[in-house]
Design goal:
It is built from 2 helices and 3 strands; from the N terminus they run βαββα. It is α+β, with helices and mostly antiparallel strands and 89 residues long. It has a single domain, classed as 2-Layer Sandwich (Dodecin subunit-like), CATH 3.30.1660.10. A 3-stranded antiparallel beta sheet has the order 1-3-2. The radius of gyration is 17 Å and the shape is elongated.
Length: 89
């Protein structure tokens, strides 16, 4: 049995909602391994002077949870706690 994690990201584009979805996936692959599927959950746009200026697509990404991700997450938590303690000083 495989556990799957789902995260939501927002992609933007000056061209189209489809391009915004591609951008969301492209950027997510920089930090997430093995993305297996996506679901488009929302599409919006910024309008300036009656014209669409920027397309925005909200995407849910699905990827398997691997055992090493727990270890990486624990290391990230430790690094964040250390950084936060430095800021408070």
């Amino acid at each position: 049995m495989t556990a799957v994690k789902i995260v939501q990201v927002l992609g933007t584009s000056d061209e189209s909602w489809e391009d915004a979805a591609r951008e969301a996936v492209k950027e997510a692959t920089k930090t997430i391994d093995d993305i297996h599927g996506i679901e488009i959950t929302d599409q919006t746009a910024d309008v300036i002077d009656g014209e669409i200026a920027q397309y925005k697509t909200t995407v849910r990404l699905a990827f398997p949870v691997h055992p090493h991700q727990k270890e990486e997450a624990a290391g990230l938590t430790t690094r964040v706690k250390k950084s936060a303690s430095k800021v408070r000083r």
